[in-house]
Design goal:
With 104 residues, the chain is α/β, with parallel strands linked by helices. The protein has helices at 3-6, 23-36, 55-70, 82-89, and strands at 14-16, 20-21, 42-46, 52-53, 74-78. The chain is built from 4 helices and 5 strands, in the order αββαββαβα. It has a 3-stranded parallel β-sheet with strand order 1-3-5, covered by helices on one side. A two-stranded parallel sheet has the order 2-4. The longest helix has 16 residues, at 55-70. It is globular.
C-alpha cells in the first residue's frame, strides 16, 4: 500500500494514516491535509497502518492535533501503536487519547 492510497478519507471525518510517517513522507502528507481536508467537528485518525515513524511524523501528528484544536474540532487517534503514544506523551499536550487526557 503506498502513501497516496492511505491518504484517502474512509469517511467524511475519518483519516487513515499511511504506513510510513517519516521525514521523507511528511511534506506530501502535510500538503495533502492542508489543502484537501475541510474543517469538521470530530476527526478520527486511524493509525493502524503506521509501521514506521520518526520525529517528523510525530511533529506532523502534533501539528494536526493543534490545528484541529484551534478550529474547535475534536481529534482522536485510533489504533495507535504504543511507541507513537509514548512519543506523543512527551509533548505534554492535552491529547484526549492518552490516559483520559493526562500526560503526567
Amino acid at each position: 500500500m503506498n502513501n497516496d492510497e492511505c491518504l484517502q478519507p474512509a469517511g467524511s471525518i475519518e483519516m487513515i494514516l499511511p504506513e510510513s510517517l517519516t521525514i521523507f513522507d511528511v511534506k506530501s502528507i502535510y500538503a495533502h491535509w492542508k489543502n484537501e481536508w475541510r474543517p469538521a467537528d470530530n476527526i478520527q485518525v486511524d493509525c493502524s497502518a503506521v509501521d514506521e515513524i520518526d520525529g517528523a511524523g510525530i511533529q506532523l501528528l502534533v501539528w494536526l492535533f493543534l490545528e484541529y484544536q484551534r478550529q474547535g474540532a475534536s481529534l482522536v487517534l485510533l489504533n495507535m501503536p504504543a511507541q507513537i503514544q509514548a512519543a506523543l506523551s512527551l509533548y505534554q499536550l492535552p491529547f484526549p487519547w492518552l490516559e483520559d487526557g493526562e500526560n503526567d
